Amino acid sequence: MTSPRIASLVPSVTELLAALGLAPRLVARTGYCIHPALAVAGIAKVGGTKQVNLVKLRRLAPTHVIVNVDENQVQTVEALRGFVPQVLVTHPCGPEDVAALICQIATAFRDEPGVTERAAALTAELATELSVTVACQGPEVAVLYLIWRDPWMTVARDTYIAGMLARVGWRTQPDADGGERGAARYPVVHGDEPWLAEVEQVLLSSEPYAFTDAHVAQAQALCPQARVRLLDGELLSWYGPRTAAGLRYLRGLVG
C-alpha cells in the first residue's frame, strides 16, 4: 500500500497530525503551521491559509489535503478537488467538536502504525478535561475577547474560541453568531456599541495580533469599568491536542 502524502492547510490540524505520529507523512504546510517546531521544520511551505500556492502544492503531489471551513477559502478547496484524491474538510466550532475531529483524521489514516492508539489517548484526555471543565456557578461573566486592533476585532459566539470561553462561564460579547464562514465570525468593534458597558473583562489574545502590556490602556478605554487581561491565544484558539491544555489553562484563570 502506498503511504499517504499529506498536506495540511490548517495550523491546528498540522499539530494534530504530528501528535498522531503522522509528521513523516506531511509533504506540505502553511507558513502558519509552526507547531511542533522540530517536526514541521523540514516540511515545505505553500503559502498561508488564505493564499495558497496551488502550483507548488500540485508539484508536491499530495494524496490528502486537509482544510478548514473557517480558515481556508472556498475557491481554494474547489481547486484542490481538481488534482487531490482526497480533500478532508474540518470545522470544529467548540471543544466538544474536537473528539470528532480526532476521529476524522485518525480514521483517514488508520492504516498508519500507532495512529489509532494515539487518537484514543488524545480522546481520553480530552474527555477528562471536558468533564471537569464546567461553567462557573452563578452569573455568567460578560467578556470581550480581542484578536486584533486598528480596527478592534472580536469573535462571534459560534466560533471555537467563544466555545472554549463558554466552558468556564465567560460569555463573549456581542451576543451574535457569525455563521459558518466569513467576516461576521470576527466582528469589528467601533467603540460606541451600547453593549460595551456590560463587559466585565476584556481579554487580549496573544494571536493573531500579539497584544502586550503596551495595549492594556487602549483596551481599557473601550470598557473603563472592566478588568483587562492578557491571555495565551494559542491555548484558546488552536484545537486538537492543545484543547485539553487550553481547558486546564482556563480553569486556572477562573479558579
Helix content: 25-40%
In CATH, the topology of the largest domain is named Rossmann fold
Radius of gyration: 19 Å
Query: How many E-type strands?
Result: 11
Spatial arrangement of strands, main beta sheet: 3-2-1-4-5
Task: Count every helix, treating DSSP H or I runs of 4 or more residues as helices.
Answer: 10
Structural class: alpha/beta
Kindly describe this structure.
This protein is an alpha/beta fold and 255 residues long. The protein is 35% helix and 16% strand. It has 10 helices and 11 strands. The chain has helices at 11-19, 37-40, 54-59, 74-80, 98-108, 115-132, 160-166, 216-222, 233-237, 241-254, and strands at 6-8, 26-29, 44-45, 64-68, 86-90, 141-146, 152-153, 170-172, 188-189, 201-205, 227-231. It has a 5-stranded parallel beta sheet, covered by helices on one side. α8 (216-222) links the parallel β10 (201-205) and β11. α6 (115-132) runs parallel beside α10. The model has no long low-confidence stretch (mean pLDDT 95).
